[in-house]
Write a structure and sequence with these properties.
The complex is a heterodimer of chains A (104) and B (172). With 104 residues, chain A is mainly α. Helix content of chain A is 74%, strand content 0%. Chain A contains three helices and no strands. Among the domains of chain B are: 1-86, Four Helix Bundle (Hemerythrin (Met), subunit A) (Up-down Bundle), CATH 1.20.120; 140-172. The chains are: A mainly alpha (104), B mainly alpha (172). Chains A and B meet through helix 1, helix 2 and helix 3 of A and helix 1, helix 2, helix 3, helix 4 and helix 5 of B.
Chain lengths: 104, 172
Amino acid sequence: MSSVPASAFLALALILFCIGLYGALTKRNTVIVLISIELMLNAVNINLVTFSKYGLAPSITGQIFALFAISVAAAEAAVGLAILIALYRSKKTVNIDEMDTMKN
Amino acid sequence: MTFSGEFLAFMGLALVAIIGGVLLLNLTKVVHMVVALIFTFVAIAGIYVLLSAEFVAAVQILIYSGAITIIMLFGIMLTRHDDESEPKAGRWRKLLLFLGIVGFAFAVYIGIYDFNIEQTPSTLHENNTLQIGKALYSKYVIPFELTSVLLLVALVGSIILAKNEKKEADKE
């Protein structure tokens, strides 16, 4: 069978998820925050596909769920970017710490 | 653990993916960050091929390295992108966040490092796309159709969100 253990794939997904989490929490540009969230979703997809091959009962369902996750992520990116552009028109900034209208 | 070709391929792809992610965190120009992330997305597609998910790999290349990267680049170019995203936030906050995330990673790693289920032979690699199509149109028809509705809603919604403001500005 395969020579790469399943835990290696899970560890790779964990590292990518942590990079995405750190980027989403520290970066100031909103586009980079959105793309870090995409990276986290990608890490989750790696986990789904890994368990579709290495799980107790290997089946195609994990890959199908990954496909659904990819399409939902694409919709989320489009809507997020549209909100960002609408916000940029009214506030002339993309820095996430200046978008604090609801803070008061 | 033997150094077979599969293992070497996995190590190379994982290295490229992690280097892309680290570059995303460390580069200063916003466009460079997005280009660095393309490497990560393509490497993840390679990982999918190793996991015998060829169709998901093709979708990954199409959607992520193609579509999402391009619309993110458009988003950067339509907004102000000449400023280097130099962090103004405090070092302490970053350090605390880093420690918290390292703690989280360690806690999850303890859970997965010796994860080993007995491998059962699978037939995922034979006619992968055919299997996905069969399952999608027999078991998962309703989620599939709901996804098309979701994509339509996202399309119309994002057009309205991005367009509305401009019209009102023109009227004024």
